[in-house]
Automatic annotation (TrEMBL):
It comes from Alkalihalophilus lindianensis. PANTHER family: 64 KDA MITOCHONDRIAL NADH DEHYDROGENASE (EUROFUNG) (PTHR42913:SF3), APOPTOSIS-INDUCING FACTOR 1 (PTHR42913). Residues 3-282 form the FAD/NAD(P)-binding domain. Its EC number is 1.6.5.-. Keywords: FAD, Flavoprotein, Oxidoreductase. This is NAD(P)/FAD-dependent oxidoreductase. The lineage of its organism: Bacteria, Bacillati, Bacillota, Bacilli, Bacillales.
Length: 356
């Protein structure tokens, strides 16, 4: 039997399994999935779990059930490309014929002293659970500082405002206006929403240090009961340790067919892959669809296409609490209740019709 090993059950790994099982996996191929958790997690909704407005079990999607799917619940410590094995924390070595690396990302602290030790994050389910506990235990009328006003920071701040109206929430943003990568009309709407709802946005910030009870913006000390870090991501350490070509963000450089230039049997999907778009669940799923196409051609000994179609992204939807939101669909900016309803609908469809 040929061994297809998938590292990580994120959006990319999950979509690959859904597309291959039950009908499109050759009889001489078996899949081994390696992940720490016994379910797929809706990472795009971690902000709601951290803020206490979504229950843990609402963020879970079960894995496909198939006799040819073997699952190992372990932590991956190293990938040995020359030996074609994956090393696990229990000392086991898992051999592969084809490998798909979909291990996702972790927080990037940009060398800020104290940030790794004294901040909370929402990049993994485990980290998000710890953040939820920390926020739940913040004293009444306490201060929560959120560093980074990208999509994650914005959604967390707005959701926390609804969950804990007693808190003073400070949102630190490096730009002149929040969500500066989006059209100005959208950025202005979101920034004004925060002003209207009593969230303090500190633009042009530069966090220089974090300690146990405060952060420092331009070296000015700001007391905080909890500091949440949403100010950048990087590939997980296992991928950072791989001796392969990477881009400036540390993501793995791939061929147009999504495998390593040096090994057509090693694919990288999702946040660890160097692609022309910012990492997202949509991008990982689109890439996964193309990887499945390449896998089928490899298994059938068919020639591979020199180029693949550009992955089409439908747009971005973000929430501002449970009643308001924002979005960008092509050139069209959406503000208010409509994008929030759309986002809820997309989430419902994913949970109940995932892979169909």
């Amino acid at each position: 039997m040929k061994k297809l090993v998938i590292l990580g059950a994120g959006y990319g790994g999950m979509r690959i399994m859904q597309r291959l099982l039950p009908n499109d996996l050759p009889e001489d191929v078996e899949i081994t999935l390696i992940d720490r958790l016994p379910y797929h997690c809706l990472k795009t909704e971690y902000y709601a779990l951290a803020a206490g407005t979504a229950a843990d079990h609402h963020l879970r999607v079960q894995f496909p059930e198939d006799s040819r799917l073997n699952i190992k619940y372990e932590t991956i410590t190293e990938i040995h490309l020359e030996e074609k094995t994956v090393e696990l924390s229990n000392g086991e070595f898992v051999p592969y014929d084809t490998l798909i690396i979909g291990l996702g990302c972790e927080d990037k602290y940009h060398g800020v002293p104290g940030a790794p030790e004294h901040t909370y994050g929402i990049q993994t389910m485990g980290a998000t659970r710890r953040t939820y506990e920390a926020l739940n235990n913040v004293r009444p009328e306490g201060v929560v500082s959120i560093v980074g006003a990208g999509l994650s920071g914005v959604e967390l701040a707005s959701e926390l405002r609804e969950s804990r109206p007693d808190l003073t929430i400070k949102l630190f943003d490096r730009g002149e206006i929040i969500l500066s990568m989006f059209p100005r009309r959208l950025s202005t709407y979101v920034q004004n929403w925060f002003i209207d709802h009593g969230v303090e946005v500190i633009n042009k910030s530069n966090i220089t240090k974090v300690d146990e009870s405060a952060l420092y913006n331009h070296d000015q000390r700001i007391e905080s009961d909890a500091v949440i870090w949403t100010a950048g991501i990087q590939p997980v350490e296992v991928v950072r340790n791989l001796d392969v070509e990477k881009d400036q963000q540390g993501r793995v450089v791939l061929t147009p067919q999504h495998f390593l230039p040096t090994d057509e049997n090693v694919f990288v999907v999702g946040d660890c892959a160097s692609l022309p778009h910012a990492p997202s669940a949509q991008l990982a799923e689109g890439q996964a669809e193309q990887i499945v196409t390449i896998l089928k051609k490899q298994w059938n000994n068919e020639p591979l296409p020199e180029e693949l179609p550009r992955i089409k992204l439908k747009g971005v939807l973000g929430s501002l609490g449970k009643k308001h939101g924002f979005g960008l669909m092509g050139e069209r900016t959406l503000l208010g209740r409509v994008p929030r309803v759309l986002k809820s609908g997309v989430l419902w469809m994913y949970k109940h019709h995932s892979g169909s």
